[in-house]
Amino acid sequence: MADHGEGPAGGIGMRESALFDRNVIHEIQRKAREGIYDIRGFGAKRKVPHFDDLLMLGASVSRYPLEGYRERCNTAVTLGTRFAKNPIELDIPITIAGMSFGALSAQAKEALGRGATVVGTSTTTGDGGMTEEERGHSEKLVYQLLPSRYGMNPDDLRRADAIEVVIGQGAKPGGGGMLLGQKISDRVAEMRDLPKGIDQRSACRHPDWTGPDDLEIKIGELREITDWRVPIYVKIAASRPYFDVALAVKAGADVVVLDGMEGGTAATQDVFIEHVGIPIMSAIPEAVDSLKELGMHRKVQLIVSGGIRTGADVAKALALGADAVSIGVAAIIALGDNAPEYQEEYEKLGSSAGYYDAWHEGRDPAGISTQDEELGKRFNAELGGRRLANYLRAMVLETQTLARACGKSDVRNLEPEDLVGLTIEAAAMARVPLAGTKWIPGLDGKTG
Amino acid sequence: MTATETAVETVDLTDTPIRELNQRLHDAAEGGPQRWRIIHPGGIHAIAAGVNAPLEIDIDGHVGYYCAGMNKEAQVRIHGSAGVGLAENIMSGSVIVDGDASQSAAATGRGGLVVVRGNAAARCGISMKGVNIVVEGNVGHLSGFMAQKGALVVCGDAGEALGDSIYETHIYVRGSVAELGADCIEKEFGDFHLAELTGLLAEAGVDCDAADFKRYGSARKLYNFDIDNADAY
Q1: Hey, are the CB atoms on B224 and A217 less than 8 Å from each other?
Q2: If I label A104, which of A60, A130, A399, A437 is the partner at 20 to 30 A Cα–Cα?
Q3: How far is A163 from chain B (nearest CA, A)?
Q4: Sign of CA dihedral A272, A278, A284, A286
Q5: Rounded mean pLDDT, A396-423
Q6: What angle do CA A154, A156, A158 make, to 5 degrees?
Q7: For A253-303, what is the HEC assignment?
């Protein structure tokens, strides 16, 4: 739900309804006035079971820890080892998720490439094609094949380092996209072969294939076009991960990208963001089960995303069986989104630093989620890239700190045994014991 | 051109892997044979996908999915029928099918010409972005769905939901239209359209009178969201 501020303060004797709180009342009134659902950016704002509900078990007598700062803890990961001639080798297990030029300014896309490249990881295009800025500044660039196919062309396919067939997005499993007319500049319009200023809808299904058997043939075509050089990822939204991962593997994916409901978006209906899909923590064990049953865990790499913010989130995701994680919202914030320095301007837009989610409107004071040239000029791509690199480095250090504490010389050696649940829900979803017990809820009496 | 370049290189897909054929076609952008004849295609998928040079390619028989996908510059002729996604995302050049084409022919195509001498199934020209398509027979339902640019010419009949959610593609139909999709309407047929259609028919080698066609396009009511048009969504 959109943020509407606190409103008038209540007092003793004034009891606010839990169901009809001020935000709900405001939203009903807004819908009655405007007749349209709420569209916004960012990701889910409701509280869902997340990695914060898991704890890690550091080493003590029964496990040896590794010496922090002294003993090596590897963070490198290779993606796409199944079929591609040229797998992607990353220095860190954190990648930058797909975000479109159109949703983001060209400067912001450049900054994502700069930051990712400095720390040896990949960034990803989005629903608007590949820009020269991001290709030029991204040493490793993943090119998305989306249902809209805006800007799709074989030359960009061939100069990509990997191809990501996007089937779903965690913020809206089963949904398409929309870039509102106010963000359609001349350049965006030209790249998408559409008139300037009109809403640009992105279909929810691919135009030339339906179902997993077709997907296999489609992936085959992409391999033929690129002479089998680059890895092909399949990105799915977390809804039925056990089956969807199995079908992606069957279709020939080198890498599966699994995006939880917490995943970000530039413009999606609030009802979609908050009510469709499942938390990433609950999706990883299902995906890993699927991979293991096929004998493909670690052979088809698993990248997970959705609400990843800290090295703790990274470590826990890896411990559950992921090979790498991907960040979107966190990367945008690292670039400078929602920065306090723009507080006054956020207020003019009816928001506040820390709350701003109207990324679809194109009026971002930070010059990130906009196509306005003047706003875009405010954003320094070099500085933004440096901030992103700093943030990524700090996350990696956090991840290594936790991995060493668990006695791991490689962050991917983290395992479910290193985790316990802080709540019954988290323990059930992550399939780890509730802290202080041997109880894994939901496993029919099994103790794991 | 050298003798190598003008000679016809014949490839038999019964004993040549598709991966090898496509690699050779891609390598031809750097030189070597420019005229190719592919025999015994046997419905194999992705034949001549990603060709990136002005080659002349004749395919003797039926092809599977994504034949000539993302074609650039090549002139591809299929002496048979084509499976799903014929010439998907074609950039330039031409792809001509003597028989029928399955679903999503020329989907998202950004340039060039695709000609189907027979019928095209559902979603012909879906999300087309500049390609010109001429179908001598009929097209199936949802043809021209979200079509953005280019022209779709149907010499026969069109199925349901023609041009649903269309943007700026010009659709010309000579026969009947089972149903127009959301925001697609019959539009005026001016001199520009007569010239465009006449030119496309001539380029496709189709003997039809452009004056027998009607034109369809976008009512542009869905271009920017308006709650009063909610029923159309």
Answers
A1: no
A2: A399
A3: 15
A4: negative
A5: 98
A6: 70
A7: CCEEEEECCCCCEEEEEHHHHHHCCCCHHHHHHHHHHHHHHCCCECCEEEE
Is B107 within 8 Å of A208 when comparing Cβ atoms?
yes
What pLDDT shows up at residue A448? 44
Whether B141 and chain A come into contact, CB under 8 Å, resolves to no
Buried (b) or exposed (e) across A144-164, using 16+ Cβ within 10 A?
bbbbbbbbbbbebbbebbbbb
Chain B interface includes A340 (CB < 8 A): no
Average pLDDT over residues A131-141: 94
**pLDDT at A400 > cutoff 60:** yes
**Interchain contact, A148 vs B127, CB within 8 Å:** yes
Helix, strand, coil share (%) of chain A residues, nearest 5: 40, 15, 45
Q: Which of B131, B126, B54 is nearest to B84 (CA)?
A: B126
The verdict on B209 touching A (C-beta cutoff 8 Å) is no
Interface membership of A213 toward B (CB under 8 Å): no
In DSSP terms, which residues pair with B11 in a beta bridge? B38
| Shortest CA distance from B222: residue in chain A | A199
Give the count of beta carbons closer than 10 Å to the beta carbon of residue B191: 7
- DSSP assignment string, A338-388: T-GGGHHHHHHTT--TTT---GGGS--TTSSS---HHHHHHS-HHHHHHHH
pLDDT value for B233 = 66
B104 and A207 within 8 Å at the Cβ level: the answer is yes
Residue A8 is predicted with a pLDDT of 60
pLDDT(B203) > 60: yes
- ipTM of the complex model: 0.96
Distant-in-sequence, close-in-space partners of B232: CB < 8 Å, separation ≥ 6: B182, B183, B221, B222
Our CA-based measurement puts residue A214 at a distance from the nearest CA of chain B, in whole angstroms, of 9
Using the 8-state DSSP alphabet, how is residue B142 labeled? T
Q: Quote the crossing angle between the two packed helices A106-118 and A381-405, to the nearest 10°.
A: 40
B226 in helix, strand or coil?
coil
Task: Please compute the mean of the pLDDT values over residues A150-167 and round it to a whole number.
Answer: 97
Cβ of A221 within 8 Å of Cβ of B230? The answer is no
Question: What local confidence, expressed as pLDDT, does residue A122 receive?
Answer: 98
Contacting A residues, span 22-51, partner chain B, CB-CB under 8 Å? 34-36
Using CA atoms, how far apart are residues A108 and A385, in angstroms rounded to an integer?
A: 9
Between A77-91, A107-121, B2-16, B197-211, the lowest mean confidence (pLDDT) is in B2-16
Q: How many H helices and E strands in chain A?
A: 15, 16
The length of chain B is 233
Question: Residue range A268-278: average pLDDT?
Answer: 96
Which of A190, A221, A230 is the best residue to mutate to test the B interface, defined by the most B CB atoms within 10 Å of its own CB? A221
Contact criterion met (CB < 8 Å) for B69 and A225: yes
Burial class (CB in 10 A: 0-12, 13-18, 19+), A277: buried
| Distance from C-alpha of A354 to C-alpha of A202, rounded to nearest angstrom | 29
3-state SS string for A401-429: HHHHHCCCCEHHHCCHHHEEECCHHHHHH
Q: Which residues lie closer than 8 Å to A391 by C-beta, 6 or more apart?
A: A115, A330, A331, A334
- Please list every residue in chain A whose beta carbon sits closer than 8 Å to the beta carbon of residue B72: 154
The count of CB pairs under 8 A between chains A and B is 113
Consecutive H or E run containing A391: helix A381-405
- A9 touching chain B per CB within 8 A: no
**Nearest by CB: A203 against B18, B70, B146:** B146
Quote the CA–CA distance of A81 and A88 in Å, as a whole number.
8
Q: Which residue has the higher pLDDT, A199 or A333?
A: A333
